[in-house]
Amino acid sequence: MMDNMTKQEIMRWLQCPAGSELDTLQARADKTRHEHVGDAVHLRGLVELSNICSRNCLYCGIRRDNHAVQRYRITLEEIMDCAFKAVEYGFGTLVLQGGEDAGLTAAFIGEVIRRIKTETELAVTLSLGERDPAEWKMWREAGADRYLLRFETSNRALFDRIHPPREGHASTSRIAMLKTLQDIGYETGSGVMIGIPGQRYSDLAEDIQLFADLQLDMIGVGPYIPHPQTPMGNWKDGGMGDEQVPNSLAMGLRVVALARLVCPGANIPSTTALATLDGKAGREMGLCWGANVIMPNLTPLKYRRLYEIYPSKAASTETPEQSRDAALKQIEFLGRSPGRGRGDSLYHLQYK
Ligand code: SAM
């Protein structure tokens, strides 16, 4: 099932010059995508629940200590409006993402899941950060299907440098958390940022191998985009020269392709961060380099610009209708078709 690539092989793909050799990577990834998950592009409606966050990740625009951010938390009824929109638009999944906000209580999220599950047939994906495993279990029992938690980088020292632990807690292992999520029974997704200052090609190659080792159902990757109101906003590469991974669209596309090759049956979105670097073209390119998922943003417009994890986030002023129309146009342009149904992970359905 998995294409077991060596670390050296992955590093060679990450570093080979643009040109005919790189074209073969794109062609292989696109063929693998076609053979394993087909031509359907699954649409997941994204709802950004809250930009309140108790964490202080050095890279993230909604970190606790960014006092320039006007904070919000969405209401249950607003989430349900998004869910009904997702159904109306023919999407199969609602993705609920947010900061680590204590106000998004276990009971509130449980109620949200129960309402969505009783009133629609949508699959529910949660992306609410590092929470108590008892809460993850409760939400799974309430009907949540999937959980996304990026490990950001497999280089532990780098992760610890950019990701201070919860106050009063020891530093955490997101890899152990992903295994807990799998044990609880979630379709589990993870991923990384590409081009974090201090990230070497060898780190990124290990990240890609870890995607396969973890047997992820979903893999979301995107370039790291500096945010000026964060401590990392003006970090340089730390003098690593040629070893430093660039935070470019081109590198993002290589990682999407390699993720497809090492996890052929995974659901892989063409992410907003890819789209942000080259207007809408980044998203189309992602779909040509192995991705099979798009996540149109359904967050009410009044909140959209407040969820600024990095500057100039793509689609931050688009209405939900415009996000849907843009996604459908891109799918049609590429000669692909919008996915029908929930678009569950093949690994979860068949392989595990
Ligand atoms: N709080 C949850 C978590 O940490 O998993 C979900 C929300 S968090 C904002 C979602 C993702 O945004 C992170 O996993 C991270 O990879 C990405 N992100 C945050 N800041 C970013 C930046 N400056 N550039 C690119 N991606 C960023």
From TrEMBL:
Gene Ontology molecular function terms on file? 4 iron, 4 sulfur cluster binding; metal ion binding; transferase activity
Read off the SMART domains from this record.
Answer: Elp3
Enumerate the Pfam families for this protein.
Radical_SAM
Q: Where is this region: Disordered?
A: 334-352
Q: Which cofactor does it need?
A: [4Fe-4S] cluster
Where does the chain bind [4Fe-4S] cluster? 53, 57, 60
Protein name per the record: [FeFe] hydrogenase H-cluster radical SAM maturase HydE
Organism from which the protein derives: Syntrophotalea acetylenica (Pelobacter acetylenicus)
